Automatic annotation (TrEMBL):
This is diguanylate cyclase. Its EC number is 2.7.7.65. GO terms for molecular function: diguanylate cyclase activity. Coiled coil: none annotated. It comes from Desulfosudis oleivorans (strain DSM 6200 / JCM 39069 / Hxd3) (Desulfococcus oleovorans). It catalyses: 2 GTP = 3',3'-c-di-GMP + 2 diphosphate. Pfam families: GAF, GGDEF. It is an enzyme of class 2 (transferase). SMART domains: GAF (SM00065), GGDEF (SM00267). Residues 213-347 form the GGDEF domain. SUPFAM superfamilies: GAF domain-like, Nucleotide cyclase. It comes from the Bacteria.
Length: 347
């Protein structure tokens, strides 16, 4: 009779545990934002299983690490629950296995998985590797002060199932985030795309008019870009565009907006900046680019740009017309290019 009661209790306990895992899975499967996924995952596991310590170890420079770095509004508590670990250190501990590991003895080597700024009183651990697109990117970890909470030999099938669902969610969220990124950004340079730039320009033009502030727009393109493509190939041409984009972002303020317009054309929106200061900035950028060629093998490829500037302080374009402002900057760019080409033709 006692054996039957004991068996019944174990079945009830297993049923309760399975239900808790199901609740965690149900919570995370519909999430499409990376930050929200981690928030919900850690909070649900802590709550459902009454665990003091739940955290993630993410392999440095993995795709999951890059996605974490892209989160601008990460809660400090969540950030403190994510440990970025060296790849070789992680695999030295876990190996290539995808099955969960339970440990309650000789834990010191596993402390490398713990968040650096947290002090966890851990006497037993459950470590479940997680994957993205078939590659191990880290682990979902649970810890307890009780040594018998996680013991080698315990059934880990439900934890393994949860890790599989987490891995699936990571891949889904990553795909969603990439699509969202591509909707707003140029895939080659990572800059904002033309559509987003036009929306931003309309917003900044309205703001400049509302508060009577200057606003300048720079339209620029790469000189001799076709020659670079013809001489060095399109792969080098793409690298030159990416190099220019990186240098523009580096030289501009955080409040400035840098976008790829099309081909080798770029637009910079400079809030609270008049034409003189915008021109001075572009001259500094030209000097910086002259000193920062793209090195292709052993060949330095010069980065030469021509630009045109238009400002809401100009008498020509209406202050409330962003399209006219952009067109004026474009016209001034091509006036400069035509003048240079005439000069080169006479030389």
């Amino acid at each position: 009779m006692n054996d039957e009661i004991s068996l019944y209790q174990r079945l009830r306990e297993n049923e309760e545990t399975a239900k808790k895992f199901y609740e965690v899975e149900k919570k995370i499967l519909s999430i499409l934002r990376f930050k929200d996924l981690f928030d919900a995952l850690l909070a649900e596991i802590k709550g459902q299983f009454n665990l003091p310590y739940v955290w993630l170890s993410i392999i440095e420079n993995s795709e999951a690490h890059h996605l974490i770095e892209s989160i601008d509004d990460m809660d400090p508590e969540l950030k403190a629950s994510i440990n970025i670990i060296d790849r070789s250190a992680f695999f030295a501990l876990i190996g290539q296995q995808t099955e969960p590991i339970l440990a309650n003895d000789g834990l010191k080597p596993f402390f490398k998985l713990l968040p650096a700024d947290r002090h966890y009183l851990v006497k037993s651990m459950a470590i479940a590797p997680i994957m993205m697109d078939g590659e191990i990117v880290g682990s979902l970890n649970q810890g307890d002060a009780a040594q018998d909470r996680f013991e080698p030999g315990m059934d880990t099938s439900l934890l393994e199932q949860l890790a599989t669902k987490v891995s699936l969610c990571l891949s889904n969220v990553a795909a969603h985030e990439k699509l969202k990124f591509l909707a707003y950004h140029d895939p080659l340079t990572g800059l904002l795309n033309r559509r987003v730039m036009e929306t931003a320009l309309a917003r900044e033009t309205a703001r400049a008019g509302r508060y009577n502030l200057p606003l300048s727009v720079v339209f620029l393109d790469l000189d001799y870009f076709k020659k670079v493509n013809d001489t060095h190939g399109h792969e080098t041409g793409d690298a030159l565009l990416k190099h220019l984009a990186d240098q523009l972002v580096h030289q501009c303020r955080g409040t400035d907006i840098v976008a790829r317009f099309a081909g080798d054309e770029f637009v910079i929106i400079l809030p609270e900046t008049d034409a003189d200061h915008a021109t001075a900035l572009m001259h500094r950028i030209q000097e910086h680019l002259a000193a920062s060629p793209l090195v292709c093998g052993e060949t330095p490829i010069p980065v030469v740009i021509t630009f045109g500037v238009a400002s809401t302080m100009d008498p020509d374009p209406p202050k409330d017309d962003p399209a006219a402002l952009l067109k004026k900057a474009d016209e001034r760019l091509y006036e400069k290019k035509a003048a240079r080409q005439n000069k080169e033709g006479r030389a």
